[in-house]
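User: tokens in, sequence out, please.
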């Protein structure tokens, strides 16, 4: 018996990340994937993975704009939101497209 795929979304508490979680869940459900999905906002966990959280606590222009500002100073930085699949960080900086999510998750389906 194969273990469920472990999905972890490292992010801020921003409601946009709840929408991203819904998209991840929808992609996994559509594929019939056996999975667990966890939202991780703990600063220690984010620091352990060397993830930068550029979120503002007032007006938010969006992940893409904030992350571009970080990357202009630190091109190698990895910003939230970041999706880990079975222990491997696969997407970071901006939410993955639905197609990229489906492609990454479908590769984990058991062969029949």
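Assistant: Sequence out:
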């Amino acid at each position: 018996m194969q273990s469920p795929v472990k999905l972890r979304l490292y992010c801020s508490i921003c409601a946009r990340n709840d929408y991203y979680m819904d998209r991840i869940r929808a992609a996994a459900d559509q594929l019939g994937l056996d999975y667990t999905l966890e939202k991780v906002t703990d600063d220690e966990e984010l620091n352990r993975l060397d993830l930068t959280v550029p979120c503002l606590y007032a007006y938010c222009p969006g992940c893409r704009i904030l992350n571009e500002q970080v990357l202009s100073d630190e091109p190698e930085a990895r910003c939230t939101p970041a999706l880990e699949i079975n222990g491997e960080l696969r997407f970071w900086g901006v939410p993955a497209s639905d197609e990229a999510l489906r492609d990454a998750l479908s590769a984990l389906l058991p062969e029949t």
